[in-house]
Amino acid sequence: FAVTIGGGGGGAGGLLTGSDLSISSANYSVVVGSGGSGAGPWPGPMGANGGFSCISSIVSAGGGGGGNFTNSSPDLSKGHRGGSAGGGATLGSPFGSGGVAGGIGNFPATTPSQGNNGGTGTTDNSTYRHGGGGGGAGQVGFNATAPGGGAGGNGCYLTITGSNVAYAGGGGGGPYLGSNSLGGAGGGGCG
Q1: Residues near 147 by Cβ (< 8 Å), separated by ≥ 6?
Q2: How many other C-beta atoms can be found within 10 angstroms of the C-beta atom of residue 190?
Q3: C-beta of residue 156 within 8 angstroms of C-beta of residue 167
Q4: Fewest CB atoms less than 10 Å from the CB: which of 2, 15, 95, 167?
């Protein structure tokens, strides 16, 4: 039977806000990107990076994909960098053992920041391997712990619709077995 080894959660797409953009009356092309995807079940690939979003000269990066357990290439276990970054997974022999850090968020760097780092995976190298949570626009992804994958970082709460709504939450990290980890407020999926 197949056993799911937890991979890192996907990071949210970058979130930029402001009120100083001067535009004239015209038609504008708007590109809406996406967050990164979480890693699929081992031995599948790491998660894919999301696409960028833009309007006029303002561009925010897509989210970083989540890392996956590997005993073949250490780079596969790292969370990808992005607007918010993907969570890290774990390493196996011959590349050592233990949890791997999530990716770097707010990449490329913006001021104010468009996102946060992913969380770190964890393992006892025997009975469990859990992925870290993806970063959200308002919070870093949570590190995985012995009970399960790390939760996704929360998004930012904005009132652009008149209500206080969260946007750009990170995805939860995958557990080895057991309950799914939570996605961050603002759209992050469960691990």
Answers
A1: 178
A2: 18
A3: yes
A4: 2
Q: Which of 85, 173, 101, 81 is nearest to 136 (CA)?
A: 85
Q: Which of 103, 118, 187, 111 is nearest to 150 (CA)?
A: 118
Q: Cβ–Cβ contacts within 10 Å for residue 33, how many? A: 19
Place of tokens 């967050």: 35
Neighbours of 105 (CB within 10 A): 33
- CB of 141 closer than 8 Å to CB of 97: no
Dihedral angle of Cα 31, 191, 121, 150, to the nearest 10 degrees: 100
The answer to whether residue 3 scores a pLDDT higher than 70 is: no
Is 134:36 a contact under the CB 8 Å cutoff? yes
Tens of pLDDT, residues 68-125: 987 767 778 899 999 999 999 988 776 667 889 999 999 999 999 999 999 999 988 8
Say whether pTM exceeds 0.85. Answer: yes
Residue 128, Cα to own-chain centre: how many angstroms? Answer: 21
**CA end-to-end distance (rounded Å), the chain:** 21
Contact 151, 140 (CB under 8 A): no
